[in-house]
Amino acid sequence: MDEDALGLAELVRSRQVQAVELVDSVIDAIERTHSDINAVNTRMFDAARVEANKVRPDAPFAGVPFLLKDLRASYAGVPTSDGSALLRNATASFDSEIVRRHKRSGLICVGKTNTPEFGLTATTEPHAFGATKNPWDTGRTPGGSSGGSAAAVAARIVPMAHASDGGGSIRIPAACCGLVGLKPTRGRNPLGPDLGDVMNGLVVEHAVTLSVRDSAALLDATAGPDIGDPYWAPPRNRRFVEEVGADPGSLRIAISTESPMGTATAPDCVQAVEASAMLLEDLGHRVESAAPDYDDRAFRIAFTTVWFSNLAANIDALSRMLGRQLTEADLEPATLAFGRRGAEYSGAEYVGAVAQIQSASRRVAGFFQSYDLWITPTLATPPPKLGYLHPGPGEIDVRPYGRRVREFVPFTQLANATGQPAVSLPLHWNADGLPVGVQLVARFGDEATLFRLASQLEECRPWRNRRPAVCG
Question: For 332-377, how does the pLDDT look when each residue is reduced to its tens digit (9 = 90+)?
Fold first, then answer.
């Protein structure tokens, strides 16, 4: 598709194309690209054709086909597997609130996209559904955990797709696949009625998109508290889509490329940030080298404690529901190994981890008293080969795998802990033709500044004219 989602909606409204034609074109693209990239694991084709005949022209995304990540978000009558064979047939009787808002915005869900089991890995290679491949190079990962969504959008199957992020899972695949990937402010989008909070506030939901304006318009359609939410984001001053193209003014921007873990950052990723810094200076922004000062080692221990403890609780809930202990016949070995580690933490250790994360968040908030934005590489390397970021069936010791992940993803987790909005933009491609993302982090609640600057960069260095090897 050449158009973004807002562009397609305008074609529907002006009757240049019918919604059912768009749906049929997406179905055809899914079928034609399936063997190449394996992005969609659940087909909703018949229901989508029915919905295409009920389009409201006044909806912002009237008649636009959409894909839903197969993790947590429930769609009535359709399985939500969470990437696990154990839940392959787990069908919800209701829609998640964000799905209701998708529907009200005019989006038509054509299917669900592949995701790693329980969204645990930075690559999308679940044993239950097979690996999703990167459309730019099918031997490489599309990232995770929203890898199926990112691969589908990059391959132009749909112009945008639902995604979620608990440690980088929107921004990682956006960087791997050359897309816009916004992680909104904590509480900006609803998680109910399924849940009020996921992983102590680390997880948020939104989308991967081709354009900045689609990300803004979709956030306008979905943002706002739901009944019973434990917290919500500060209200916006005006619609986010009105920020797109607005003058950002002269911003004070901090730039850093060194991994907070002390691991290496690939030259391609450093070059992407440095080139972006030069462009920002040319645009009149004030750029200097700086990064928040916090105890990264203590933060990462705390972050892992929260992640694994929540996984252990989820596995325990599934065990109680089934009336037996889960084994490798039910879940992937790495999932069980991480879950066992999580079960070893005490309640006191969990509370201490939450306090440590909050302490780091306060230090980072102080840093943003001096800077409007912080810019880093999204990832420390371009997308690696498939298999590198996923423990193999016989890899019982997951520590080597953990090191590989930390070396690949050292920059994204902090924004999940602080709750700040962060976006990955496809501002660079390397000599191998692979996209390299640049991450922009703003103050808590300040998506507006991200949309202003991101649209300015999109205009100066457009990316939608680039097409991957696999294109629907």
Answer: 988 999 999 999 999 999 999 999 999 999 999 999 999 999 999 9
Assess whether pLDDT exceeds 70 at residue 394. no
Residue 396 has pLDDT above 60, yes or no: no
Per the annotation, the verdict on 211 as an active-site residue is no
**Domains contained in the chain, CATH given:** 5-296+351-460 (3.90.1300.10)
Q: Say whether 145 is catalytic.
A: yes
Tokens 């989602």 correspond to 5
Q: Which of 105, 149, 169, 361 is catalytic?
A: 169
183 catalytic residue (yes or no): no
Mean pLDDT of 195-204: 94
Of 145, 276, 424, 455, the active-site residue reads 145
pLDDT per position as a tens digit, 251-282: 999 999 999 999 999 999 999 999 999 999 99
Q: Could you tell me whether strands 204-209 and 160-165 are parallel, antiparallel, or unpaired per DSSP bridges?
A: antiparallel
The residue annotated as part of the active site, out of 69, 112, 133, 183, is 69
